[in-house]
Specification:
It is built from ten helices and ten strands. The chain is an alpha/beta fold and 310 residues long. It folds into two domains: 144 residues, Aspartate/ornithine carbamoyltransferase (Rossmann fold); 152 residues, Rossmann fold, CATH 3.40.50.1370. The strands form two sheets. The protein has a five-stranded parallel beta sheet with strand order 1-5-4-2-3, sandwiched between helices. The two termini are 14 Å apart. It binds phosphoric acid mono(formamide)ester. Phosphoric acid mono(formamide)ester (CP) binds next to helix 2.
Amino acid sequence: LPYFTTVEGLTNEEVHALIERAEEFKHGEPSPKLDEPVYVTNMFFENSTRTHNSFAMAERKLGLQEITFDAGHSSVSKGESMYDTCLTMSAIGVNLAVIRDRANDYYRQLTTERPANSQLDIGIVNAGDGSGQHPSQCLLDMMTIHEQFGHFDGLKVAIVGDITNSRVAKSNMQLLHRLGAQIYFAGPEYWFSHEFDAYGQYVQLDDILDQLDVLMLLRVQHERHDDQTEAQFDVQAYCDQYGINQARYDRLPDQAIICHPGPINRDVEIVSELVEAPKSFFYQQMQNGVFMRMAMLEAVMRGRHLGGLA
Ligand code: CP
């Protein structure tokens, strides 16, 4: 029962191997021949455009057979649990489940904490758990950064915005810190927690812009905010202090890149005219996602646990 659920347990060697493999796929390396059909299902209990379709494309390119799962029309609407839904998919012969859910750590019940007598026999790939982890987004970000700079050591990376609520920020701060990048955090203080001090330093964005290699913008995630946070949030103040406008864009070094996991709130995190500007690497991130997800799925198909919690 292989799984790929977090980036916490990934070794640096595994990260570099995944990037190398994703690069091979990107440069036309054919996917390995499968000895027998491999069936995969994409179970998205939270909405998605990029991750869902990028996994679907990666699966097609690898020659996997997708069994469609539509959360809204599934028996989850009758109260069936995630565990029992996965047990059903396993019983009908599905080999791999790519899952996104709003609950942090949902994957533990399917992997390290499943019942001792569990008959579950299905590989699990985490496509995002609440505000916990987003391994595939993180690794496609690492691939995009590596393509631009060729290394991580000493890179200055700012993670900006709704950090507390962002699974992308959690995965990226953990991995970038371990790979030797210097991390800065910026954004409203109510979206910063001292838990993040272990990974980087809280700063004012305008104090560091001209030193940055990577400016990592986060989406303002209204769907995860409680009433108090929504009441505190002032979109104009956010744009004024943290929004990437032409003046802030121009202060970034020429080789710097701006990343955003998407979907973008245009004219909030960045002004609309700069979404496809040369330093904005959002399109490259989305392109790279397909190849990185091919590499991740291949690793799981080879029976390797990656990033699982002990
Ligand atoms: N980056 C990301 O997870 O986007 P989606 O929510 O569209 O999958």
